Amino acid sequence: MSNNRDYYGVLGVPKNASKDDIKNVYRKLALQYHPDRNKSKGAEDRFKEISEAYAVLSDDDKRKRYDTYGHLGSEEVFRGSEANFDEIFKDIGIGGFKDIFEQVFGGREGGFTDPFNFGFRIGGGGRRRGQDLVYDAELSLEEVLKGKREEIELPKLERCRNCAGTGAAPGSKPRKCNVCDGQGQMKRVYSQNRFSTFVSLEPCQTCRGEGEIIDRPCETCSGAGNIRNYKKINIEIPKGVEDGMTLQLRGEGEPFENGQSGDLLIRIHVKPHSIFERLSDGHILYNLDTSFTDLALGAERKVPTLEGDEKLRIIAGSQPNSILKLKGKGLPRYGGFGKGDEVVRLNIKVPTQLNDTQKALLRQLDKEFKSVVDK
Ligand SMILES: [Zn+2]
Ligand SMILES: [Zn+2]
User: Dmax of the chain from CA atoms?
Assistant: First the structure.
């Protein structure tokens, strides 16, 4: 991990930035550099950097110590940090921090790395679990109305059968790393000052934190101990979901050896509709073009809804932009009762081209109106 970086510079915030500002900036950067989302070179390192900076700057005590004494050891950075990574990651629909830690900071399924040994404060109470998977579902308003069933293919990490997950070629065994004595991590006195000594625990360079060394890697999985596979599952997206929601299917994520499977997170994207605008509480808006005569004389018009056309009565003397409602013709309310309405706004459309007869009639009408006003 970085030793001489300026945490404020890494996040691009001023020295006096508030906790909320720091959180918002980190949330944005995490969304951008999260290794699940950004496969470009350097994204992972950048993600490590910003996470380390955030762990320190979002924690009053650590921030004060950093401001006063400079860097903390990498063990110190995350230990008991106030930083709520889980909340942020859930919020932006990516896996929990522990999963990220295992992915980014050197852990491997079946490997030694358990962030709880480092004393991370992470929601979920210290279970080891598989990685969460994220699926982006796109729905039309019509699908929001009815709910949607979808068959999707999930990438699944499975234990390699050829080597039974050890990563070593059949007939061979991984051997204990003698540099770190199988611990996978090395203690290093990081810095000393008048008040305290910082000790950092860093992944062993020789075995890359695994604690063991594979001399002959398994050919099937290239020594990883697991392989990627695909599994089809049916998901059901309930009625009334809203854009930006994340649904969680427990246990449908990646499995974890002797532990709990991760979750499948379904991120909901609702496509904009060509004629309806979604309002809150299940209501939808439709702009109906009407003419002056429709409003003045009253009219009966056909109006599209999500479930076919409906008749709408416009009463004589209606004003432009007034609102009519088609009860229950909106969307189901997610987690609530009933359906919203279709709100119809009466737009007035003024003709841009008139023929001579129309012009003559309108002039006559205009004269008629004025004579009434003059009396
Ligand atoms: Zn294998
Ligand atoms: Zn080692």
Answer: 109
